[in-house]
Amino acid sequence: MDNPIIVGAQFCSPLQVQLTVAKHIMDFNHGQLVISDSCGNALFKLYQTKVLLRELTVVQDGDDCPVVSIQKKSISFHDTYQVYNKDTSERLFSVKDKHMRDKASETFEIELEDDLQPTFEVKGDFVRRNYKIIYRGSVVVAEVQQGHMSLYSEVTGKRKYGVVIPPKIDQAFVAAVVIIMEAIHNEGKERSGNYRDSSDSDSDH
């Protein structure tokens, strides 16, 4: 499968991986939103109480080094999120609302910086954290699953969600897209008046 490496080859694995997305569960996570591997090691994290991405937000790795930065475009006909390399101004890709429909179930397009047409799509139910990132219209490069349980879930008693990523896929790219989908979900809750804090257990599941 010839998928582009968007953030870096160091974020690719020769094996399928299953990651866990957890929000503000314990202090040892060293962040408010943490994406960890199957052993509980933090791979990507945010130091934020609300994942909304209105300001430039830096996603860090487990050693606190910048991986990508994300910001919602302030003036845009579509909801558009731009992703940059580390904490620089080098833009890697954009995530754009394709249809501007209700946020519960729709399609987002991902445009790589050097491509004229969208390369990836994100489809599914974002409220319930069940969706897929699809390459070139047919190849699933990541699947988000609400039913996934982890070591963190067992320790805290909170239900988290997982991300299954096939071999040779850029996990940092997938992490950035997942964080954007989380921000979109949070913004939808905020607009509807149901937003409390990103550490809340998701009562809409």
From TrEMBL:
Gene3D superfamilies: LURP1-related. Pfam families: LOR. InterPro entries: LOR, LOR_sf, Tubby-like_C. Belongs to the LOR family. This is Tubby C-terminal domain-containing protein. It comes from Marchantia polymorpha subsp. ruderalis.
